[in-house]
Design a protein that fits this description.
Blueprint lengths: L9 E7 L2 E10 L7 E2 L1 H5 L7 H12 L8 E8 L2 E2 L9 E3 L14 E5 L12 E5 L5 H7 L2 H8 L5 H10 E5 L4 H20 L6 H15 L9 H20 L1
Parallel strand pairs: 2-4, 3-5, 4-9
Antiparallel strand pairs: 1-2, 6-7, 7-8, 8-9
Helix pairs in contact: 6-7, 7-8
Amino acid sequence: MKSAAGFDDVVLQCKQNKTTIHRFVQVKHKQDGTEKISVGSLLTKSGEFNLLKYFIAYLKIKNNAKFSGGTKHFLFATNMDLDSPYSIQHEVRNLRAMLSGENKGKELPFVRIDTKDEFLDIGDSAKYRISDSDGSIAQYLKQNMDFIKREIGKEVSNKEIEDFLNELVFVVNLPHEAQLRELLLGKLSSRLNKKFGYIGDNQIFCNNLLKKISDWVKDIKARPLSYKEGEELFREIEQFPKSMSSN
């Protein structure tokens, strides 16, 4: 979705208590899952989670009339973990200090968010925000303010920097593709068994579901998937176990 460039992998719009909620999700998936989110990946212009790049994307979306009103959430969704000596059970996890370069010795604390999320609480995932208690990230962004101003076309306030850091959420340790398939298969099997008493091989239904989702994701028109289409997708999947359980 070009109008959400930077956070455009998944754009979700929904209504909650008569309020429109936009969720802008940037997905970072690694096949082997060994690479981690480091200080360098955040605070260098070539880094994969380059905060300067995503701050500019955030501001452009915020100023876009297409997304006016309502609430906006900005997320990184990844199967990577934080490069931290602290385990996922810790409420605060500092990224390991860089051993060299311009960010040598710098640590960045991430604070865990424990609110429930029906979309992203999958497997062993966890949600975090950056804690900029020492102001080092704000200072990093301010050092590039001339560049930001050229990109945005206006001055940027301290409040906008603060809001960006408060609204940016890192969802880490999401399952990779094979793990997600197993989780979906388990959930699907449980639901079909409960609804129809079907206990047969559910691989075909899981594959069917994943293919339909994959076809939608690859659609170059990036069309929205409506609630009605979602209902129809699951209704199709249920037809076979429904007929089998009635025989």
